[in-house]
Amino acid sequence: MPDQICIIGLGYVGLPLAVAFGRNRPTLGFDIDEKRVSELRTGNDQTGEISEQELAKATHLTLTANPTEITDAKIYIVTVPTPVDTSHRPDLRPLLAASKTVGAVLKPGDLVIYESTVYPGATEEDCVPVLEAESGLRFNQDFHVGYSPERINPGDKNRRLANITKVTSGSTPEVAAEVDALYNEVVTAGTHLAPSIRVAEAAKVIENSQRDINIALVNELAMIFNRMGIDTEAVLQAAGSKWNFLPFRPGLVGGHCIGVDPYYLTHKAESLGYHPDILLAGRRLNDGMGTYVAQQMIKALVKRGKPMHRVLIMGLTFKENCPDLRNTRVVDVVQGLEDYGLTVDVHDPHADPIAARATLGLKLVEQPEQQAYDGIILAVAHAEFAKMQDRDFRAFGTEGAVLYDLKYILPPEASDLRL
């Protein structure tokens, strides 16, 4: 019988992992959110990542919110969030709390693997001391650790856990090989065994930093081309005819990865006395895009001589076709418009209205009013919106309303503004 695995955290990352291992080996799925565990037991995954049928196939998976029930596991995989605080500093509290939970039940011979995104060194410098303190055991003598950064893409039904190459690592060469073999049980795309935990940590944090910088570049280009009266998408399509041009598009950069991970690397760099100019410049530019979008809408309304009473924003989640509201930068557009005294309605068929109210202070409208809005902003390219035509969106607007297409859902001539 294979060793029992315990997944700590059953969110976007942990649940698919628990289901994958739970098909073939004894697996515990632990989360401190009792409501979440209760829903999953009925086959209901609020994130939309795992279907009821997929949960049912994980016949060796047991779900619990009780930490006393995870004592028999031999392998613990930590998949909790690693956010930043309001000052953009890494917030390791969920990770350290999970380490305490594991440390309290850790036994000689156990293995702890971390998947949460961190700066290089965090696993061995921040998490391991907690494990040692809570368990009274010695690192690399009584227990070992590994690191295998998550690569889950919320809302993506094609790129999933099994078909995304997994980076693996361990605290000794022998443990690294064990971690690598473990993930090869569920990842058909294969693995990449990194030479150290710090290399694996660094690889993860630069994946999203690289995307952040590239998006910042095209966001800045969009601002320049807007001043020139040039359509940014037309420029990018023309440039994209060259074989090595990277197909990034401008937009709002939110979510739990791209808008957060670079701050982990900049934090570590600054602690070592290095000021990372490019990383922080990209973050500043991307963090300011919501305000820029709001200002563009205000300018367009003023130029048209339109009254500035109400604006409709279509989409609130940080990306299309998923309910994830974490770090969505659509809220910056809302705030920017409200600063000018406008009333803003937000409609999103994927977002949970209760979560939107609780976490963002926004009340979603279930169905926008017809002929009610002076401006309409297409902020998220949900499949429901992508099927609509310009007349469908304009039906929500007053006469001469400004239609702003952030996501290139419509043909260029069908909207009044594009990013």
Characterise this structure.
- It is a single chain.
- By secondary structure, this protein is an alpha/beta fold.
- 39% of the residues lie in helices and 14% in strands.
- Strand 5, helix 5 and strand 6 form a beta-alpha-beta unit.
- Helix 4 runs parallel beside helix 5.
Number of alpha- plus pi-helical segments: 15
Biggest sheet, in brief?
6 strands, parallel
Task: Give the overall form.
Answer: globular
Number of strands: 13
Helical content class:
25-40%
Report the portion of residues in β strands.
5-15%
Radius of gyration: 23 Å
* CA-CA gap between termini: 56 Å
SS content category: alpha/beta
Low-pLDDT stretches: none
**Taking strands numbered 1, 2, ... along the chain, how are they ordered across the largest sheet?**
3-2-1-4-5-6
- Average predicted local confidence, pLDDT: 95
Strand-and-helix sequence, N→C?
EHEHHEEHEHEEHEHHHHHEHEHEHHEE
